[in-house]
Amino acid sequence: MKRGYFIIIVLLACVSYSHAQSVFDFVLNREGKLTAVPKFKALDFNIPELSYKTYTPSKLTEFEKKLREFTPDFPQIHDERPMDMQVLSQAYRPFFNVFTPMIRRISPMALDFQEFDFTPISETTGVLTVGEQFTWPGVGGLTRVSSSLVWQQDRWTLTGGAFAGRYFTPFNYSPDFMGGVNASVSFEASDWLTLRGWGQYAFYQKGERTNPHMLLNPYYNHTSVGGAFEVKVAEGFRVGVGINYEYNPWNRRMDRQFLVYPAFNNKNIRIGFN
Predict the structure, then answer these.
(1) Mean pLDDT to the nearest integer, 96-111
(2) CA distances from 85 to 79, 80, 113, 114 (A)
């Protein structure tokens, strides 16, 4: 029985010694003492390296991807006109310009404009569109657009269309609406004589009777009808004589006006009474 205990003890001692050999190194010092020193062991914890320089949150990545794929849905229009005409065209939107108050302070008429566009339909017919703005310091101003159908055949020229816009005077501090229709006819009776006729009906939002500037300013549209003939004096120069009946809102009748005016014209420009 004692031999069995002895064998078990010996086996346990061998197991303990073998485990100690795998974990410890036994070192004998100068004094003859045996010292157990733990063996060095490299441990690999498999920790991933942190690359903070290239880290981007997933939400920002998706947002940048959508920005790269975004394409504006409006067409890109390149204005090929000269720079002075491009600046002039911005007058159509004067109140969206941050420099408008400064420009108006320097010159109230700085934003005035007048532009024409003629679109041919056939050899004898076309559409004439005119946009214009006039300012009279201390008196008022007018912004107007008109479109007319023009027909010309041999010696005859017929024009008919409509106009609309807004006006302001010292009597109405906010712009009011105005509009109307007009027509004109021209006939070249000979090389030296041209006959003209015209008619126009105009109406205003508050009426002309309460605003004297409407009657005194010839640049405003007035209800009228009349005719004239032009005599050729020299090449490109004519003298016109005629009569015009214009509606007077104060006495509610058509006032007669006699006309004598010069007319200059060539292939591209005409100045006279229409």
Answers:
(1) 68
(2) 10, 10, 10, 11
Q: What is the pLDDT of residue 41?
A: 63
Query: If pLDDT is split at 50, 70 and 90, which confidence band does 94 have?
Result: very low
In angstroms, the CA 217 to CA 231 distance is 28
pTM of the entire structure?
0.59
- For 168-175, what is the mean pLDDT? 79
